[in-house]
Amino acid sequence: MKRLRDLVLPAVVFVVAIAVWQSAHSAGSLPRSVASPAQIYSELLDRHELLWFHSRPTLISSLWGFLAAAAAAFGLALIVAFAPKMGRSVYAAAVVVASVPLIALTPILVLWLERGSAVRITIAAIASFFPMLIGAIEGLTHVSKDRAELFELLSASRWQRVMRLQMPSAVPLAVAGLRAAGAGAILGAIIAEWSGGSGARGLGTLMSTALFGFNVPLTWLTIAVTVVLSIGAYFVVSLITSVAIRRFGHV
Residue 140: enclosing H or E segment and its boundaries? Predict the structure, then answer.
């Protein structure tokens, strides 16, 4: 019953919001720069092939960026676990990376890497890196005091503490970081495309073309697709991590 309620309530809120949006547009209460749900849906039917043409490279680059960020984040988190004194330095570097405006960084990367997938993947990786790193480090460094004392009494080695105590304890926070990073990778790739880093293809490229061409329905369609892809990335990562935890388990 609770699961059904959790699904029905958001669906009802969504339907009501769409109905209010459409009614407000029909009544002329919204500015011309806001398309109605009916216009967005009509644009989807007319442009679905073009939409897929531009969305595919965005999704592929987001995936590669996400995987690259995961490898870097968990690698650094393990280094911090084995060498805790490096934690502050890694944190400081991560904060600096997360503070860089990606929309300003993209043109610099274009000069270095040229337009294309490399820029998209790099920006997607940077956008998704910080939540994964913080989740992994926080999980590895905050363990149960009682269990830590037990490992101390048993004279466990650093390797045993990391592999058998810290890593299992890190799972919940690490998973939370992965979920947040899934949506971040999508948005990072779109930022790269929006800033001119993708060349001729990409959802961000289509979005900027529609915006500067004053195609209001197509602009809102690309915004809607971005939202759907970001939410979808969150739920896909959640599903994969949930299946992995059930399959392999953790202590």
Answer: helix 117-141
Tokens representing residue 210 in the block:
């529609």
Please, which contacts does 94-99 make with residues 24 or more away whose CB atoms are closer than 8 Å? 94/129, 94/130, 94/133, 94/134, 95/130, 97/126, 97/129, 97/130, 98/129, 98/130
The token pair at 217 is: 């329905």
Q: Which amino acid is at 171?
A: V
pLDDT 10s digits, 22-31: 898 888 888 8
Please give the CATH number for the structural domain made up of 55-248. 1.10.3720.10
**31 secondary structure, DSSP code:** -
Asked if residue 69 lies in contact with residue 121, where contact means CB atoms within 8 angstroms, the answer is no
Phi-psi region of 100 (alpha: psi -120 to 50; beta: other; left: phi over 0): beta
| Rounded-to-integer distance, Cα 230 and Cα 183, Å | 4
Q: What is the pTM of this model?
A: 0.82
- Give the residues of the chain that fall short of pLDDT 70: 1-7, 144-166, 196-199, 247-251
